[in-house]
Amino acid sequence: MLFEFKGNKPIIDSSSFVHSQANVTGNVVIGKNVYIGPGAAVRGDFGKIIIKDGANVQENCTIHMFPGVTVTISEGAHLGHGCIVHGATIGKNSMIGMNAVILDDAIIGDECIVGALTLVKSEMVIPNRKLIVGNPGKIIKDVSNEMIKWKTEGTKIYQNLAKECHSALKETISLTKQLVKENSDTKDYKTWKKTKE
After folding, report:
1. 10 lies in some domain
2. How far is CA 155 from the centre of its chain?
């Protein structure tokens, strides 16, 4: 659902998809080919949120801030299921893992990968192409070309999903038996573990 707050209405490019069970409030600008999943809370009530072209915000993510702050989710950024970004900046083509927490004034550089369940402390600045894990989060190594290729392919799936949801996602009732057709666009994508086998 979309909500106006104190005269601020979300601005969303028509190519992007915001699930009806997501909540987008106030001063939020969403660029092209963005996917916002069900249960996501994108709250531009205290400040501003900019989600740039090709980014995705998956199920149950929260984006918020302290008053007067702008949160930027840069081009191609990938926010995994259940993560929290509070008052932070996420760089281009970076991935925030599932249930990770990025705190106020942290800056995640371009093409970084933040591991699942990682806590990035307030004001931490992560240079480009770093892998961060742990609680508190620590840089453990550089992100390889292979890792970025894998991440970018995964993000393209969500960019395509944003397009497909406009025509293919429909509310329905369950069937007692349903045949599932394999999606030819995603069948060749491999998990990170499978790419190493």
Report:
1. yes
2. 9
pTM score over 0.70: yes
pLDDT digits (tens, 9 = 90+) for 70-121: 999 999 999 999 999 999 999 999 999 999 999 999 999 999 999 999 999 9
Q: Residue 182 domain-assigned?
A: no
We report the CATH number of the domain holding residue 64 as 2.160.10.10
Residue 194 CB contacts under 8 Å (≥ 6 apart), including other chains: none
Q: Domains in the chain: how many in total?
A: 1
In a domain, 26, yes or no: yes
CA distances from 30 to 112, 121, 150, 175, 195 (A): 21, 26, 25, 35, 32
Would 132 be classed as within a structural domain? yes
pLDDT tens, residue by residue, 56-76: 999 999 999 999 999 999 999
CA–CA dist 136, 180 (Å, integer): 42
Rg (the chain; Cα; Å): 17
Domain extent for 16: 2-142
Are the C-beta atoms of 137 and 158 separated by less than 8 Å?
A: no
